[in-house]
Amino acid sequence: QVQLVESGGGLVQPGESLRLSCASSGITLHFYAIGWFRQAPGKEREGVSCTSSIDDRTFSADDVKGRFTISRGKNKNTEYLKKRNLKPKDTAVYYCTKEKPGGMGCTAGGGSVEDFGSWGQGTQVTVSS
After folding, report:
1. Is 83 helix (H, G, I), strand (E, B) or coil?
2. Rounded CA gap, 5 and 109, in Å?
3. Quick check: 39 and 91 in contact, CB under 8 A?
């Protein structure tokens, strides 16, 4: 059974940094395209950053480029999302997920919800002064 567990969220002030972690059981994360998505209150879930399973290329949404970095962990069951210069608009629940079989995987803009499945429970990130 595939299980993904996110951690590292919290309350931070604008301009600060956080690193989110995603740990897997039941699969080896690095064999798959992995995506980080977020969902703010009242909004749809959206792609943030993802890593391709083919060549580990990464893609991010325009409003996080240069601030968020997705990376594979040394442990093949771990994936990270390093976030710096956080803004209040980054407040959301952040989810780690793996690609669906037959889906498009990691694509430009950080990936699409319909191409990913096996969602974790999410970790809350709140950016506020």
Report:
1. strand
2. 23
3. no
Contact 129, 26 (CB under 8 A): no
Q: Report the C-alpha dihedral over residues 65, 68, 100, 44, rounded to 10 degrees.
A: -80
Strand partners, 11: 126
Q: At 2, is the pLDDT very low, low, confident or very high (cuts 50, 70, 90)?
A: confident
Contact 117, 98 (CB under 8 A): yes
**Calpha distance 97→39 (Å, rounded):** 13
For the chain, give the number of residues. 129
Q: How far is CA 112 from CA 10, 14, 30, 57, 89, in A?
A: 25, 27, 19, 16, 20
How far CA 30 is from CA of 23, 52, 56, 92, in Å, comes to: 11, 9, 9, 25
- Pull the structure tokens for residue 125: 């990130």
pLDDT digits (tens, 9 = 90+) for 71-124: 999 989 999 999 999 999 999 999 999 999 988 899 999 999 999 998 889 999
Average pLDDT over residues 36-52: 96
